[in-house]
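#dry-run=false #mode=assembly
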Amino acid sequence: MIAMPKAKVDAERCRQCMLCVEFCPRGVLVVSDQTNSRGFYPVVMRDEEKCTGCGICALVCPSVCIEVYR
Amino acid sequence: MNEERRRVFISGNEATAEGGIAGGCRHFFGYPITPQNKIPEYMAEHLPPIGGVYLQAESEVAAINMVYGASSAGARVMTTSSSPGIALMQEGLSYMLGSELPAVIVNMVRGGPGLGNVAVAQSDYWLSTRGAGHGDGRCITLTPYSVQELHNFTAGAFEIADRYQNIVMVLGDAILATMMEPCELIPRREMEPPGRPYAVGPHEAGERERNIVNSLWVDFDAMEAVNIRNEERYARAAAEITDWEEFGSDDPQVLLCAYGISARLCEGAVMRAEEAGVRLRLLRPKTVFPFPTVPIREWSERVDAMLVVELSMGQFVEDVRLAVEGRCPVDLLSRAGGNMPTVSEVLAKVREVAAKAGVAV
Amino acid sequence: MQAAHGRGPAVATGIKRVHPDSVVFTYQGDGDLASIGMAEIVHAASRGENFTVIFINNAVFGMTQGQMAPTTLIGQKTTTSPRGRTAAEAGWPIRICELLDTLEGPAYIAREALTTPPRIRSAKKSIRRAFEAQLAGEGFGIVELLSTCPTWWGMDPLEAIRHIDDTMVEHYPLRVFRDRPAAHDRPAGQQEEAGSDA
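#status=ok
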């Protein structure tokens, strides 16, 4: 079985800058309705099925808090 | 080991430079300033052929920061300058004290404040012993009084710097820098890594923890710990390396205190003491930080008065008075701007001081 | 190894001269490199020191809370140019890459922008190339990265990116200014080639 590619956001380090949401070509990332311990609403994966693992979210993330597995 | 020592006739500047090489220095960063230009010139001539690095920096500020980098990388490194240049280096010196790094700095003091002149002065006493730059940190300060001592002290300064992980300042002056004397040269030490476990540099993965050289301590206690560590090393240095020399009457009425070139002058006064009709002794510190507080205090209980001779308006004299703590009168003979008192003027002042103290002259 | 503000290139020179085989780089902002450290960067570049400089230009002093930098654009408001920078009061913003490109020493000079994914990929390439130049002993490399400061620009992160792409790049064109071994490694008498456009 081939593992599905997916992007994983470290919610604690996310500062909700929204660049990954803006640049994601598949629109699979959204803002959570729960804050992290620093008071930000971190980005979470909404639709893992549609994630292609292209890595653009990780590329643009200034907080270096997204890892992409493919 | 009995080494053959070569005796040569050289200037204080050359003796200092060769002293650095003898002490294991193979990295020199500097910027030209009179009256010490012969030192960088000597290093430019002699370091590259033996595998060393000479680099003329774009400023004293850059030079001291190159020293900071080279020291953090584990090298025995030195720079030399004169008063206005040393003032510019205060930033880097302070960072090195904060990062607890060794280095050797030579200051061939000239007249000031401001651009001043290029003549002899001892007016950087406070600059050398009271700091470097901002913050709680001080430079171990050596005060040679001859070409030979410039050579020996500079060579020995690297051991002291490494032992205490601290800057060592060699305090010369425009006369010592430029005068020529016979000097017995210490054989050049091989360049060897001084074994600094805290230095940055190449290492195999897993061989050791990665080293970080840093003087930023945001945490209050971490900052205070650095300040306390520094105080502890100064206390250790005071116990271990405080050095001075005495010369003259064993039962003095007046004690002369002077360092560096002034001590040279005072030696002449002691030799002619009978002209003043006063029993004279000279105490000359070879280190002024740490300061020979103990012998000066001891003499203060046995002499009628002390006379400090220095080529500044009264800097060194403050440390003498701190050691004496009012036990005897401490007078000052000072000249500045490139002027020096003559031996006769010193003796005249000795008579005056003795008379004031009630010594039958 | 922490250097004093602006002195990174001097400290790096000291380290590299002791350990020529170690990879050495500095990470400097625009206040650090283009203001207080201007002498150190120019002379390290001129000497062709074999290390790499990562230069973050966000046109503002961020760490000290938003003062004008030497790279602040004309008209840009900062806490110390509250009515916007004017050339009459504060002079013009300094273009570091163009300035260093007048020197023989550097092997690699590029300006990139950390905005869109293609531009970030290009920046990665330049950084890689600058380090490769160091590893090959070609000499000094600098990569200027136009970067945002949403906090002190008073913009949200996306607006800030667009500000770079729409406005900042007009004053700071993205370009590889230099990509060749340092001049002192080349045969004497040979003319320099013009830098190639990215």
